[in-house]
Amino acid sequence: MTEKVVCARPTDSLFDAAELMLGAHVSALLVVGDKREIVGIISEADLIRRVETDTAPAKSWLLRLLEKDGSAARTLASTRTRRVGEIMTREVVTAGEETPLQELVERLQRYRVKRIPIVRDGFPVGIVSRADVVRAVLSHARQAASSGDEAALRRKGVGP
Q1: Where are the domains of the chain?
Q2: What is the full DSSP assignment across 127-138?
Q3: What is the CATH architecture of 93-160?
Q4: Tell me, what's the pLDDT at 149?
Q5: I need a labelling partner for 71 at 20 to 30 A (CA). Which of 17, 78, 122, 134 fits?
Q6: Which helix (H) or strand (E) holds 28?
Q7: Helical spans, DSSP H, in 43-149
């Protein structure tokens, strides 16, 4: 679990959310309300594909920013006036601090999400990403290999 949780507010601009993601080196932000409760999540994928919620453009806003005509200025202005709350995912899959790794993996797969916020009393205390899961599996594999219990790992489906 990553304990550093980077958050945005629903009223933040999409531009500010993108800058926050880049500055914090994260691919998603939890969106929290006034009491720090989770109200949504916004990811780089949301910024790329969902900025235009009312229309169906042929190109994402990122591609339009690269164009040489005047549409880039309009697109940039849109990212400064559009708000996180307009495009965030509102249904967030969460887990408690005591949720076993296997259950976290099952939720990642079942809900087709890339990260699961970890909550205590409804408030975020961390986040588990697919990279965290890979690290945990490798750690278990290393421990078992160093203890000579490779057969047990194979029975669990970890390793060659």
Answers
A1: 1-91, 93-160
A2: EEEHHHHHHHHH
A3: Roll (3.10)
A4: 60
A5: 17
A6: strand 28-32
A7: 44-49, 61-65, 71-81, 84-87, 101-111, 130-146
User: Do the beta carbons of residue 67 and residue 44 sit within 8 Å?
Assistant: no
**What is the pLDDT, as a whole number, of residue 152?**
60
145-160 per-position pLDDT tens digit: 777 665 665 666 655 5
**Tokens 């057969």 found at:** 151
Only one residue has tokens 């249904």, namely: 91
- C-alpha count within 13 angstroms, C-beta hemisphere, residue 26: 22
List the strands of the sheet with 115-120, edge to edge. Answer: 95-96, 115-120, 123-129
Q: Is 93-160 in the same CATH topology as 1-91?
A: yes
Check residue 55 and report its DSSP letter: S
pLDDT tens per residue, range 126-152:
999 999 999 988 888 888 777 766 566
* 1-91 CATH: 3.10.580.10
pLDDT in tens, 62-79: 665 666 655 555 555 555
- In one letter, which amino acid is 60? S
The span from the CA of 122 to the CA of 135, in Å, is 26
